[in-house]
Amino acid sequence: MVQHWQLISIDNRATAGHLGEIKRFFWRPSRAIFHLPAVAVPLAYKIDNRSPGDQAKAQRMALESQRSSLLLTLPFELLLIIAEDLGKDYLHLLCFSLTCSFLSEITAHARYHSLCYKLKQESWSGSRIILIGNRSKSLPKTMLTNEEKEELGLPNDTKSRIVARALYHVAYDSFQKLSHIPNDLVFGDQRVRTNPKLHDELLTATGNERHMDWISITRKDCVLQRQHEDSWMLRNLSKREYVILPDSGYIMQFLYNLVGVTEYSFTGTKGTWAGDRIDLTVDSTH
Fold first, then answer.
1. Distance (Å, whole) CA 68 – CA 102
2. Which stretches does DSSP call E strand in the chain?
3. What is the DSSP letter of 15?
4. Around 40, how many Cα atoms within 13 Å sit in the side-chain half-sphere?
5. Does position 1 have pLDDT exceeding 80, yes or no?
6. What DSSP designation does 13 have?
7. Count of H-run helices and E-run strands, the chain
């Protein structure tokens, strides 16, 4: 019988989905490749508006705007606290910053950190990675704690084969699928997609050059890019090991050999990195 595969991030509770036969795995690159590299938000977004001059300018703008907005009657320092408190939800902070030009000025620093937080939460970089087949007979012994097995609803069975195959099905049925994660960070948000009024207001706001980049940013904009002189580096953060890859065409092959786990037929492999914390970077940064 044919064996099928899934590339799974244990920590993110996410899967690249059903990858099909092994030949498809090699010839159809997984979207996981875009989630393994470290987050790299463009430097143009890293604007620190906390200098005294900028704060004084923002305070003057606030005084000029107070008549038109009750929100702006709040103390300047409190508005910054609100912005920081919204930082774990990029959409909320973005909408807050769009209230007026004054808030857009003072929240740029908070928006940058909120954007980084959102991307890092979704990134597979540094998470436990395993490529598991639906006919796998075992898992790395230390990959899952007893608490994690219970949380995932895996059977309390001494036979590792049963646990391994159960993980395959649990991941496919309940883990987040990368194919369901939209590329657009803002317009792909479920709250925006299901709220036409919010969608239209954000679309209108993109007409302002100051706001456009913050609203239209995509995940691909924030993926570490390899320059011509660079080589990809696949790192095992758990074992402090790495391999250098000439180009992206080798990534899937090395993932299969290093994090793949199955003993089935001719496609069997037992990767020594399976279940370890993996990331993808470029050699010039190290």
1. 12
2. 5-9, 14-15, 127-133, 176-177, 232-236, 241-245, 260-262, 269-270, 277-282
3. E
4. 15
5. no
6. T
7. 12, 9
Based on C-alpha coordinates, what's the Rg of the chain?
23
Domain ranges for the chain: 5-39+129-180+226-285, 43-121+184-217
- Decide: helix, strand or coil at residue 153: coil
Structure tokens at 263: 């003993």
Instruction: Give one DSSP letter per residue of 216-280, joined into a string.
Output: H-BGGGGB----TT--EEEEETTTTEEEEESSGGGHHHHHHHHHEEE--GGG-EE-TTTTSEEEE
**CA end-to-end span of the chain, whole Å?**
44
Contact status, residue 10 vs residue 143, Cβ threshold 8 Å = yes
Give yes or no for a contact between 275 and 128, defined as CB atoms under 8 angstroms apart. yes
State the pTM of this model.
Answer: 0.79
pLDDT at position 199 is 96
Contact (CB, 8 A) for 176 and 182 = no
Q: Which structure tokens are listed for 189?
A: 């948000």
Beta bridge partners of residue 15, listed in sequence order: 8, 177
pLDDT tens, position by position, 238-259: 999 999 987 777 788 888 889 9
